[in-house]
Every structure is written in structure tokens, then in C-alpha cells.
Specification:
Order of helices and strands: EEEEEHHEHHHEEEEEEH
Helix content: 25-40%
Strand content: 25-35%
């Protein structure tokens, strides 16, 4: 376990109350072993006029990002059953990342195992969310813990995008409002290079710029898959916010000028 301590709690996969080991999210072998990052509270991004000029400092952590979410047995199960397939998926994604924003990549990843990849992604959402996920959505843990099943109710959808993750994103379950008149989205989001993922519940089948990869649950075994996937930016720690740095800075500047003009 190294410097990561075990804590007492409820395993997010099997539900047993026991000692929980440290689960790297994403897995340690997918370039998350020595990650150095700043842990910043969601609300801190809204305390400064311009988070680019005065970025919230947060608490610097290193040694890989993770959570005490699973018991040792379940942690080992994930590592042996799904992580090798997920690593191949991640390696393929890294090979095509560019230093661009809103770039549409068209590519093929050979001999990947979609069902195992989907189970690993769902396990990551179980890891970052609280115990309530296990109680409110037992179908998720059942889908992951049974390596043979393809059963994942249609109310759950998983979307993906390519990203350099300018700000690594771990957003717990929340409802994202659509101020342009659309339906609110019930979601959780993870962004860590080379992919970002959004798990939605009882929401629409499509999200602009994102790939709905929920069908991964239907494909057992290895196969070649073709993709057309956008590379998006994550400058702000806000779910479903993929504005470029220029767009964010421009909108911040407009807001500041509006406030000054109206003496607010």
C-alpha cells in the first residue's frame, strides 16, 4: 500500500463494511502513479474574478489520484479483470492526442475489449462518488462485479471525449442546469488524459461534442473499433464545460467590464 493508508468504510462494489484500500482513479498503470496535482474545492473557482490570473492554489498532492472506495478483494478483482483492457484503450488514446482544442480525431484502436473497458469506467464513477451511489444505483455495482453480465439499464449512459485535461476533473454526482432552455443533465464527470467521461442518469441520448459509448456494454471479446472523437479542453472545474481558454478569458473579461460599467 506504500504511503496510502487503509480506512474503515463501506466498499462501493460489494457493499461490505470493512477496511478500504486506496484505488487509483484512473488505474495506477495508466499513467497515474506519480501524478502531482492541486486539490481545489469546486466553489473556489468562483471566488476570483479571473481564475487564470489568480488560480486557486488548493492543496498539492502527489503519488497518484485515488480514493479509499473498495475493499482489498474488490480492488484486486478490478486490477486483474478490467485494468489490462483499460490500459490498452488509454494507450491508444495517448497516441493520437494533439496540442489542439476542439479537434475532431478519426482513428482506429485495434483489439480492444469494450465490455471490460466499460466496466472499468463504471467502477471509476463508483469510486469517486459516495456510498449513496451503491444504495441508489445498485445496478452499477452489479454490472461491474459480475464480469459476465452485459446488463446495464438504459437509464445509464456513458459519454467520452479526448482531452489533455488542462484541469483534471473529478465531479461528483450533480444536476447540471441548461440555461439555454434545454433539459438539466443528471451527471458525474471524470477527466484525466487522454479521456474524459460523463455518466448520466435518466438524461438524453446525446450531448454535444461527446461520444455516447454506452454500447460498449454489448461487445465482449476483442475487436477493432473506429472512432470520430473530439478533443476537448477542461480549463474550468465545471461539468460539461469544454470552452477553450480564449473563450473562457473573453467571457470573464466581458463579465468584469459589465460589472464595472454598472457599478455592481
Amino acid at each position: 500500500m506504500g504511503r496510502h493508508k487503509m480506512i474503515s468504510g463501506k466498499c462501493r462494489l460489494c457493499g461490505e463494511k470493512t477496511m478500504l484500500s486506496f484505488e487509483h482513479v484512473p488505474p495506477k498503470t495508466t499513467f497515474n502513479s506519480n501524478t502531482k496535482y492541486a486539490s481545489v474545492a469546486f466553489e473556489d473557482y468562483f471566488k476570483n474574478e479571473n481564475p487564470f490570473k489568480n488560480p486557486p492554489k488548493g492543496k498539492i498532492k502527489q503519488g497518484g489520484i485515488g480514493f479509499n472506495s473498495f475493499c482489498k478483494k474488490c480492488n484486486s478483482f478490478l486490477g486483474s479483470e478490467y485494468v489490462p483492457a483499460y490500459k490498452r484503450w488509454v494507450t491508444g488514446g495517448f497516441e493520437i492526442l494533439l496540442d489542439r482544442e476542439f479537434y475532431l480525431h478519426k482513428y482506429t484502436i485495434k483489439q480492444i475489449e469494450p465490455l471490460k473497458i466499460m466496466k472499468q469506467i463504471i467502477s471509476m464513477f463508483l469510486a469517486i462518488n459516495g456510498d449513496f451511489y451503491l444504495d441508489a444505483y445498485p445496478e452499477l455495482s452489479e454490472f461491474v462485479s459480475n464480469k459476465e453480465t452485459r446488463t446495464l439499464p438504459d437509464k445509464f449512459k456513458v459519454f467520452a471525449y479526448l482531452t489533455r485535461a488542462e484541469n483534471i476533473r473529478y465531479v461528483n454526482h450533480m444536476v447540471k442546469a441548461d440555461f439555454k432552455g434545454g433539459q438539466p443533465i443528471n451527471c458525474s464527470e471524470i477527466a484525466f488524459p487522454p479521456y474524459g467521461y460523463v455518466l448520466t442518469i435518466d438524461s438524453e441520448d446525446k450531448i454535444k461534442y461527446l461520444n455516447n459509448i454506452t454500447s460498449f456494454k454489448n461487445y465482449d471479446g476483442a475487436l477493432d473499433l473506429n472512432f470520430s472523437m473530439f478533443q476537448l479542453s477542461t480549463y474550468m472545474s465545471i461539468p460539461l464545460d469544454y470552452r477553450t481558454k480564449t473563450e473562457v478569458e473573453s467571457q470573464i473579461e466581458d463579465s468584469i467590464n459589465f460589472i464595472k460599467k454598472n457599478n455592481m
